[in-house]
Write a structure and sequence with these properties.
heterodimer, A: 662 residues, alpha+beta, FAD/NAD(P)-binding domain, Flavocytochrome C3, Chain A, domain 1, Methane Monooxygenase Hydroxylase, Chain G, domain 1, 4 domains, 18 helices, 39% helix, globular, B: 282 residues, Ubiquitin-like (UB roll), 2 domains, 5-stranded mixed beta sheet, two-stranded antiparallel sheet, 7 strands, binds flavin-adenine dinucleotide, binds iron/sulfur cluster, binds FE2/S2 (inorganic) cluster
Amino acid sequence: MSKQRVMVVGGGLAGLAATMKLAELGVNVDLMSLTPVKRSHSVCAQGGINSCNDQTRLLGDTEWKHLDDTVYGGDFLQHQPPAKEMAYWGPKVIDLMDRLGVTFNRTEEGFMDRRRFGGTLYKRTAFAGATTGQQLLYALDEQVRRWEAAGKVTKYEHWDFLAPILDDQGVCKGVVAQDLVSMEIRSFPADAVIVATGGCGLIFGRSTMSMACTGSAASRCYQAGAKYGNAEFIQVHPTAVPGADKLRLMSESARGEGGRVWVPRKPQDPRSPHEIPAEERYYFLEERYPTYGNLVPRDIATREIFDICVNEGLSVEANKPCVYLDLTHISRAELDRKLGGILAIYEKFQGVDPREQPMKIFPAVHYSMGGLWANYEKSEDGGMVAGSPINQQTSLPGLYAIGECDYHYHGANRLGANSLLSCIFTGLFCAPGVANLLESQEKVAAEYPGQLFDGARSDHQSRQDELLKRPAGKENAYQLHQELGEVMTKAATVVRRNDQLSDAIDKVDELHKRSQHCSLSDTGQWTNQNVTFTKSLLDMFPLAKTLLKGAFQRDECRGAHYKPDFAMPGLEGKTSADRIKEAELWCDRFEENTKKWLKSSVATWNEAKSEADIEYEDVDTSLVPPRPRLYGLVGAEEIEQVWSQRAAAKQEAVPGKANLST
Amino acid sequence: MSNHSSTTKRKTFAVRVLRKDSPESESYWERHDVEYEPDMNIISVLQKIASKGESSSGKKIAPVAWDCNCLEEVCGACTMVVNGKTRQACSSLIDRLLEESPSEIVLSPMSKFPVVRDLVVDRKRIFHNLKKVKAWVPVDTYSDMGPGPKQSRQQQEEAYPLSECMSCGCCLEACPQYLKIEVTRKNGETDEAFEQRQKEAYDKGFIGANTISQVVLFNNNPTGQMNAKERTDAIMQEGGIQICGNAQNCVAVCPKEIPLTTSIAKAGRAATIRGLQRIFDK
Ligand SMILES: Cc1cc2nc3c(=O)[nH]c(=O)nc-3n(C[C@H](O)[C@H](O)[C@H](O)COP(=O)(O)OP(=O)(O)OC[C@H]3O[C@@H](n4cnc5c(N)ncnc54)[C@H](O)[C@@H]3O)c2cc1C
Ligand code: SF4
Ligand code: SF4
Ligand code: FES
């Protein structure tokens, strides 16, 4: 393997984990990133990282239950073998991060402390103050620096990945990239390429994500032929703080530590929140969801907050939709110890102390469940085969996708604190497979004919030259980005309607056409950020179009994708017998819908038509049979009853199984 | 908040930016009149300047170059000098700045690092120094070996603040002992030769408060402790802790309120002990 190299694009948690593991396996790695890797978006993660642990085990928790919560929370849209592997790796991942020096919070006795996150009844979430992502990222960054010092890793920071290089068999043999300082465009031969470039929140203009989260790298792979899965599934986080440049996240841990969401019962009650007595406050999540209370899964919390403000007119403020997230009943000392970091952010950016005043929050685009389609090899025990080069491979051989930019783990909705886990897990888990791929190769990429790499380079050079030569004064990229964000936020976030989506498809198409005439206000050849931004904007359109088309076609509600016209309402019957009858019909309809829609969308970019061709892929649900998500639905009890009878009957019907259960 | 200040009534405000087109070219000031909006920060000001594309005199200009990523003061990318104080552009709120200095807002790049363009500087030296002191926990393997050593709450509470350092460089900009090192490429010099020369130059300069604090962080980690000597040796070389004049400027400006002078004192004690040890070892 001495001459072979792997190119890792992206130095967030996923890319760094893959890099250090590959280096440990003796592989030479090139690591490329837009920002210095230590400044990657993963530093923003606040709340924590999940795994089953010794404390939850005492209460009956298992890795299997973590799998169950993950797929139930994701509305069963993820293949279960990868989700299982991830859940079973959870404890190992956290142990490793502990050994690497992450400053996880401790209990009195010196064990790792845990908190509860949404969508589970167990305290699975390990955390380091309120900057868990930063602490995890730094630990991996340090390890990668160690390998850099040892000569196994070469970093290319301030480089923009422009495209994968494919040989005539369609196998990925390197990348073309641009130095953001000198603007030099260059080819890098690589024997495998791992893309770990994070989410695509900037398609929505403002989101909780960082400025590098344009999705441009994933889009460039997609346009080069890689398939893209479940684009329509975008998580909107229930609690963010609206700002002019960014929607800053207020972590779910604020609710995990006891934060309560409410609005005054009287619309826009002018009194200060402290003067409003308990009975005049509407704790709507607690009232509507007695079991989970403020910790219902994200999609549900988001919809309820949206509904309270938009449909019920109960927003705290008249001209700006928002609700209270209240921590003021918790002691200052406890808040400082457990949530210091995020409260400081609120205070810093809003100028109000959230220990004294309830925060004002509203939902914001937060996470892309969809991403580059990736493969896996299923093992006999229903997980993944360790060391298989197929794991995490995209539809282009030799090109891998991990972290937020793959589509694998979170189905239709991601559980809080599961993403940091999936990022580190995919990085660590894919590395041995990639090393094995290298073992099996006969020829080193660097020894391929030079024209493969020169051709790719000069191709991108001429595109760049064309962009710089465009006549001045045409379309402005920043303006177009804002318009794109507005269209996408309106049509494709919390509530989706087909008329709005089809309207948005036309509008985005028009913006896409206009973007072909973007001209630059800076035509220089040195640190030209205008060029970089314009290129990333151009590449947002294929993803935006795929997302809209996927959402338009999916006539159902699943996880974060909510279309009220296709929602399955609760039961209305007055008597229990009526409701049972209704529940039977409800379950019939649910089964029909499952048959039709429990499928991932898998898109291929059609350049000629400038739109996505979408196929649908069956989901492997061999471990946990799909069941309805009934959080808070009227008649949930009866539906549950009918459903479990049916499930039991199915179990009996499986030949051989019936005997076993007696 | 902003309701109390007189600034809400203003329509525009002046921003003066110290620009530089490339490392070789001269710096120059450029003035912009920016339309006031509530809740602005320096990032939104720079975005406005970029989309407008002209200066206050109506001259067509290229957008000002600057770095940013997280926009919530955790990545350290957007550090620059705002009204004479080094800080993060994303958490510099316009209302506050105008209260401090109503006539104009002045932006310039950090002065202790080579300017790449406008407000973008090259902070590679920070990361080089982290390498020099081996700021990591040298585990045997990434395979599953169970959890790390148990740690008390107190240990965690001491380590956590140090681990929040985002390598922004504010402490270095403020430090009288940390001087700019700019190495320019010679004609025809290869990448490798240039980088080598750069590293050698970095190794001569002061390593800075942030790096010393990282040494303390890792030397107190139960596993990191095992190579404490190596790290302490690294801060006793040329450009090491002995250069610190204890001016305490660093601790006053750290946006993460990291107890840098406490770290420097701890590292200083460790260095003294190590110095004696080395004499006896001979
Ligand atoms: C505010 C916030 C809070 C969160 N909190 C939590 C939490 O508590 N728990 C949890 O589990 N999850 C949380 N998440 C989600 C989680 O942080 C992310 O999903 C995760 O960090 C993504 O990591 P990543 O490694 O996939 O990519 P990122 O960390 O986004 O890194 C992407 C990398 O790719 C590089 N890159 C991108 N494009 C290019 C290009 N064109 N060329 C070269 N390089 C490129 C970037 O420079 C960067 O290095 C949170 C997310 C947000 C927004
Ligand atoms: S205390 Fe030392 S490191 Fe800090 S500013 Fe002074 S000289 Fe620099
Ligand atoms: S110690 Fe503080 S000021 Fe210095 S680099 Fe770290 S965070 Fe920035
Ligand atoms: S953009 Fe990250 S600190 Fe300002």
